[in-house]
Every structure is written in C-alpha cells, then in structure tokens.
Amino acid sequence: MKQSLDHYLNLLNRVDESARQLGLSGLSESDRAVAIIIWNHRDKSNHHCHIGFDEFQHLAAQRQVSISRAQYFKSLKQLELHNVIRRVNGERSAHYRFMLD
Question: Are β-strands 85-87 and 95-98 bridged in parallel, bridged antiparallel, or unpaired?
Fold first, then answer.
C-alpha cells in the first residue's frame, strides 16, 4: 500500500493526541526511540525486556538511529518517571517491564 503524506500526518496527529492523553507528551524523540526499540525487543508473553546498552545500540543501528550511552540511560529514566517501564531485579540488571496494567 502506497503511503501518502496525508496518511502520515494524520498518524502523527493521532500519536500526539494519544501521548497527551497518556501524559507522555513530555517524552523527547530519543525517549520515544528508546521505548520503541525496547518494546520491539520485549518478551511478548510477559512484556519484560532484558537489554543492555550494547544490544540496544545494535538494534538502534539497524533502524538507523543513533543514541549515546548517556542519552540511553536518561531516556530509560524518563520512561520510568512516566510509568512506561519499571526496572526489575535492581538498578543495574538491564531488565525492564512495561507497565501496561
């Protein structure tokens, strides 16, 4: 299906509206990129994700996304503060759970 600019802009509008309704409009583009990459890497049965920076960086490169180590950890913190993810098994476990409930 050929994508049109109209379709793309309508989709962006929906995403923006959803972010506002969920209280996520404060997330940066980097925060959203980190969320998308770890979301696609999660275990679909329990919404847990175990991912360190090196693996994240590899997955980001496949999407032609460049995020520094410092920004990665900043974005994870923002996702925690906005109740998108929660750390599992401690601060340095690189194990996260999406807060869908």
Answer: antiparallel
pTM: 0.88
CATH architecture entry for 27-98: Orthogonal Bundle (1.10)
* Interatomic CA distance for residues 32 and 50, integer angstroms: 18
Per residue in 4-35, pLDDT (tens digit) is: 999 999 999 999 999 999 999 999 999 999 99
What are the tokens at 83? 């109740």
**pLDDT attached to residue 56:** 97
Q: What confidence score (pLDDT) does residue 9 get?
A: 93
